[in-house]
Design a protein that fits this description.
The structure is a single chain. The chain is α/β, with parallel strands linked by helices and 157 residues long. A five-stranded parallel sheet has the order 1-4-3-2-5. The longest helix has 18 residues. It is globular. It starts with 8 loop residues before the first helix and ends in a 12-residue tail after the last helix. Bound molecules: S-adenosylmethionine (SAM).
């Protein structure tokens, strides 16, 4: 997803309480970052966040972490989350956003960060054979998700 630079994004994300600036600091500790204990669901490549914003606002007992490599789209995701929670008249307490390269996701999530569910919606197809290793669903990537995906859920990968 190509996107024009948005001058407001950096400042808005820096001020946001639900944007994690350095996710490597939370490795092994994600569950403690939410107000309530609950299952942790992950969205990889969340883009503008429309999906996670709606889902998280409707499910207060589930904690969500949405990751994308592009700050530009995360700026829009932040605004989408705010809009949905305003409509739902809820405090934003069960969703976190962060910018990271998912190819090295093992640097931000480990076996202590047990994840119940992973969403990957419309991932970049990378149709050329020489690029297909970049797909978020490439087998080598799926192996990495097994590090933190709950036992019993791994056979679906
Ligand atoms: C086609 S868009 C889909 C966005 C969103 N899931 C949706 O359904 O609208 C794919 C998203 O995945 C992100 N992405 C692709 N590869 C990534 C990677 N290796 N690390 C982090 N984000 C990645 C892109 O930046 C982009 O926002």
């Amino acid at each position: 997803m190509r996107m024009r630079r948005k001058p407001w994004v950096r400042a808005e994300l820096a001020e946001s309480e639900f944007f994690i600036d350095d996710p490597t600091l939370n490795i092994g500790n994600w569950h403690s970052k939410y107000k309530r204990k609950g299952p942790l669901h992950l969205e990889l490549g969340c883009g503008k966040g429309s999906f996670i914003a709606k889902l998280a606002a409707k499910n207060p007992n589930i904690n969500y972490l949405a990751i994308d490599i592009k700050s530009e789209v995360l700026g829009l995701a932040k605004r989408n989350v705010e809009k949905e929670y305003l409509q739902a008249q809820r405090e934003i307490d069960n969703v976190l956003l962060t910018a990271y390269e998912i190819e090295i996701i093992q640097n931000i999530l480990n076996e202590k960060d047990i994840v119940d569910r992973i969403y990957i919606n419309f991932c970049n197809p990378w149709p050329k054979p020489r690029h297909n290793k970049k797909r978020l669903t490439y087998p080598r990537q799926l192996e990495k998700y097994k590090i933190f995906l709950k036992q019993g859920r791994r056979n679906i990968l």
